[in-house]
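Sample 3 of the quickstart, ligand shikimate-3-phosphate:
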Amino acid sequence: QLVRRIDRPVVLVGMMGVGKSSVGKRLGAMLHWPFVDADDEIEASARMTIPEIFATFGEEYFRDGERRVISRLLSDDKRKRTVIATGGGAFCNEATRELILERALAVWLDSDVDTLVERTARKDNRPLLRDGNPREILSRLRDERTPHYSLAPVHVVSASGPHTQTVNRVLQGIA
Ligand code: S3P
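Result:
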C-alpha cells in the first residue's frame, strides 16, 4: 500500500559515512525496489574509481559527471520505483539538487560528527578526506552542507549502530 502511493525514486542525501548506501540497500529490499548507488554508476561510466577521477580531472569535473549520471537515473521511466544513494556532495550542487527535488523524493540522513568519523574510517576511498584531519573536514563540510541538505523534504537521524532503526524511520518519513 505504501509502495503503491510513491511513484518517484527515493533519493538518499547526506554526508559521507552517514549510511546512505547501507540504508538504501535495506530500504530497497523492504520496498521490493531496486537499489542504485550513484557513485558506482559514475565509476562504471567513467571506468575509473572516484579517487582516480578526482586526481586526474578534479572535483569540478566529478560534479559535472555526477549531475549527468543522476539526471540519467532520474529520467529513466523504468526506474521510477528505485532507491538511489547519492555521493555526499551531490545535493549541494545546485543543478543536481534541482533535478532531485523536481523528479524524486529526497531523504536527508543526518548523523553526528563522531558517527561520521567512525564510519568513514572503515574505507579509504574518499578523496576529500585525504588532505587533512578527517574529523575537522567532516565537521566543516557538515556545517557548510547542512543548509543544502535541509532543503530535502524528509529528514531522518541515522544513529550509530545497526541501520534497522534508520530504515524504519525512512519508511515512516516517506509514507
Ligand atoms: C563526496 C562523497 C562521496 C563521493 C566523493 C565526494 C562528497 O560519496 O561522492 O568522494 O563530496 O561528500 P559518499 O557520500 O558515498 O561517501
